[in-house]
């Protein structure tokens, strides 16, 4: 009889914690941010500086790289992975051009 009571109490606790966690996540303010991996809109504006630090880490022209990367990221909300190339991951970033037709985003 004691085993049945213990089983019932443990089951009740597990059941109640499962639903209490589910209710907490239903609130949009408390739900974790879910982003697509890469692509336009995959970053929030406050995430751009960190992504651009990584993108511009291997260049010898760090200041202009960071300036244009942050400008492009604030418009496109994405930064391609790595320090060079992979611009196909972010079409907006890839298609933004200078007046001369060169790439605007590093």
Automatic annotation (TrEMBL):
Keywords: Gibberellin signaling pathway, Signal. It holds the Pfam family GASA. GO terms for biological process: gibberellic acid mediated signaling pathway. This is Gibberellin regulated protein. It comes from the Eukaryota. Transmembrane segments: none annotated. The keyword Calcium does not apply. Belongs to the GASA family. Residues 1-22 form the signal peptide.
């Amino acid at each position: 009889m004691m085993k049945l009571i213990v089983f019932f109490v443990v089951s009740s606790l597990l059941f109640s914690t499962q639903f209490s966690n589910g209710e907490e996540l239903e609130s949009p303010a408390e739900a974790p941010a879910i982003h697509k991996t890469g692509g336009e809109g995959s970053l929030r504006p406050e995430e751009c500086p960190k992504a651009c630090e990584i993108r511009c880490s291997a260049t010898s022209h760090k200041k202009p790289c960071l300036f244009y990367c942050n400008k492009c990221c604030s418009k496109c909300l994405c930064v391609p992975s790595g320090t060079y190339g992979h611009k196909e991951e972010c079409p907006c970033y890839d298609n933004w051009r200078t007046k001369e037709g060169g790439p605007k985003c590093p």
